[in-house]
Amino acid sequence: MAFMEGGSRVVMTLADQLDWSIVTGCASDNQLVVLDSYKLKVTTLGRNFSLPLVRAHSVYQRWKKYTSQKKVLIYSGNYTPLAAGNNQRSRNIYYCHTPPRFVFDQYHYFLENVPTLLRPMYRHIIARYRIDYLTAISEMDVVLANSKNVSLRIKQYLNIEANIVYPPCNIDRFFSHSSDNYYLSTARLDPLKRVDRIVRAFIKMPDKKLVVISTGSELKRLQRLADQADNIHFLGEVSDEKLRSLLSRCIATIYVPVDEDFGLSPVESLASGKPVIGVSEGGICETVTDGETGILLKKNPTEWDIVDTISKLTATKAMLMHNACIFAARKFSTTRFVDEIKQYIA
Question: What CATH class has 171-331?
Fold first, then answer.
């Protein structure tokens, strides 16, 4: 968690700006160290388990039992809403990053990645969780979506009209330098982020340099794939400071996930004055304007589509988009986010 994902950044921003405490279902030692470095008040409901199914089930049970005496509770994440039934005297606000995709639109994808012998258990847990989740959502006073894209999913799967509050980006902390002639990928390394297509594209362009940060289940496979490619560099997780430095000196960032909920990484790129090579799917369509603050590829792009776009978005072309990128990022400022959240708290 040294490299914070978007959902975690939202929670940290709320806790910091509102001077509230964070309650988390479980956290690793590394995650707690990061949270402590920000001087945030954190309560952990239990220890982290290594096995995904065991971890998910344990967190599920912890939130079902959680009670609070606070007047207002903001829920963020897939399991936290399960506590709403125990806190009906509070004002319950659900900030939804997406209805849980392993239950709804990507159920079969996640099921296929569960070992065959464990699938009956998985089906049972998900069926039970789905009932509890839908019950919990019905008890919320307010449901907020982090994007238009997610609000449509909420309508489709939960039959709720959610108000939209875009996530915050601390845009004042980002800065821009002249490029060091590399492109940057910041997406988590799992199949749904399609980083493998980015890597394959740069294998075909040995004269172009790619820097990959973050980690995930695909790390070793991607490293093997790029083993003979001297132009591709994997840095793993990096600190916030290192992230901002890498963003400030890249030509552009590349972010092509499958139907991303919102995607904070493109906004951080814009705040650094760097255009985004994105994809015409999901929340990226709400942050990146094709031809002005980046280039949007067609849905489900191939590595050759990425190769073609890289040849178009040169360092010179990217610099021409610099001011438009900075201006576009202002829409997602921390001040705007906190002001909108306060309206719903009131």
Answer: alpha beta
